[in-house]
Write a structure and sequence with these properties.
The chain is of the alpha/beta class. It has 13 helices and 13 strands. Strand 7, helix 8 and strand 8 form a beta-alpha-beta unit. It is globular, with a radius of gyration of 20 Å.
Length: 375
């Protein structure tokens, strides 16, 4: 099908915060609420697409990113004709590159561009009358999932609840007291039996701590150990750790460049690679990277820990490129995720099935979360 030019008529970001009774805990900080920045894009023909911007940190970051979309990106896009999503992605990336450099904010700009890109891809698929996963080349709409974000406290209770919802795989946050981490891993391994179990350090260890603690984790038969080191540590440290541990290593959510992904795909250090499409690259960059991950013999598992629209887009990418990877589904309470993730809310035997409706296949009802909207 030949692409027809389309002109963007409006771009708008909406910011929300859902207060938490139980904070989400990582090795570097706590989340007292769950933010979400949803992006709505419309063209002059009346087609609408939805995306989401990564906005978890810092705690005040969501509102800032929404303003970047509304006050910087929207004026640069509206009224212009394009043939494909990549043209918009390239135009705003190049058009904001100097101001991102001048302001010292390449991250927030990359994240807002990614969120707009997701919305444009949804719109583009709707214009063509096809499901996004099909447009991305998928041959099947059923994908495996796992329960993520399991806290170090009450981890057993969270894991049991996730398993009762249909999950068959779990990922625990570690990087705290080593004895408590091991006790939690033992408890979750007993709960999940021979099912998938992974651990996420959230960049919490130095190379010295990683070399000391990681080798002993092999007894838990982990599917992977995620971000044991900071993403900006010298690659030689990652290589040294890989040589000392049997547990597969995973990372990718904090890689934000083509060069960064090329480095990890050209080495055998990482077994699992986890780009986050709402944090950097959107679908325009990350769809190609996901295919490169599979070509390199590694496992593609999209990272995601936000609202439902970005999660659903991540699911469409995984279904679109195929492979044996799993979709990350946060196990923490969050209606900003559950009300907008469509079929991802219906987990059966560790998997979900996407529908055949055009685009992402959902029509978000923002009125249902009006009470969580911020100024």
């Amino acid at each position: 099908m030949t692409s027809q030019p389309f002109t963007i008529s409006s771009v708008e970001a909406f910011c929300y915060r859902y207060p938490l009774s139980t904070p989400v805990v990582t090795s570097f900080g706590r989340m007292l609420n769950r933010p979400a920045v949803f992006v709505r894009v419309e063209d002059e023909d009346g087609h609408v697409g939805w995306g989401e911007v990564w906005a978890n940190f810092p705690s005040t970051g969501a509102e800032h990113r929404a303003r970047l979309v509304n006050e910087v990106l929207a004026p640069a896009i509206c009224g212009r004709a394009f043939n494909a999503p990549a043209e918009i992605f390239d135009a705003v990336t190049q058009g904001t590159s100097v101001i991102a450099l001048q302001s010292g904010e390449p991250g927030p700009f990359a994240q807002t561009i990614a969120g707009v890109d997701l919305a444009v891809w949804d719109l583009y698929a709707r214009r063509r009358g096809t499901a996004l996963w099909k447009l991305l080349g998928g041959n099947g709409n059923r994908i495996k999932v796992y329960a993520s974000g399991i806290n170090p406290t009450d981890s057993g209770q969270m894991a049991e609840a996730a398993l009762s919802r249909g999950h068959r795989g779990l990922k625990l946050k570690i990087g705290f007291d080593p004895a408590a981490d091991r006790a939690n891993l033992a408890s979750l391994r007993a709960l999940v039996g021979g099912g998938m179990l992974a651990a996420d350090v959230n960049q919490g260890w130095s190379i010295e701590h990683a070399l000391e603690l990681a080798p002993a984790l092999s007894e838990f038969n982990l599917s992977w150990l995620e971000e044991p080191l900071r993403a900006d540590r010298p690659w030689q440290e990652w290589q040294a750790l890989r040589q000392r541990v049997d547990v597969p290593l995973a990372a990718g959510e904090n890689i934000a460049s083509h060069a960064g992904f090329a480095q990890v795909l050209g080495d055998d250090v990482l077994s699992v690679v986890q780009p986050d499409i709402a944090k950097w690259g959107g679908l325009t960059a990350c769809a190609a990277i996901a295919r490169d991950i599979l070509t390199s013999g590694k496992t593609f598992c999209p990272h995601y820990l936000g609202g439902g629209i970005g999660l659903l887009a991540s699911a469409h990418l995984l279904a679109g490129v195929g492979g044996n990877g799993l979709l990350e589904v946060d196990a923490n309470d969050n209606p900003l995720r559950d009300r907008f993730c469509g079929p991802i809310a219906n987990i059966s035997d560790g998997a979900v099935t996407l529908n055949d409706d055009p685009g992402l296949g959902i029509e978000p009802d923002l009125a249902s979360i009006q009470q969580y909207r911020t100024a």
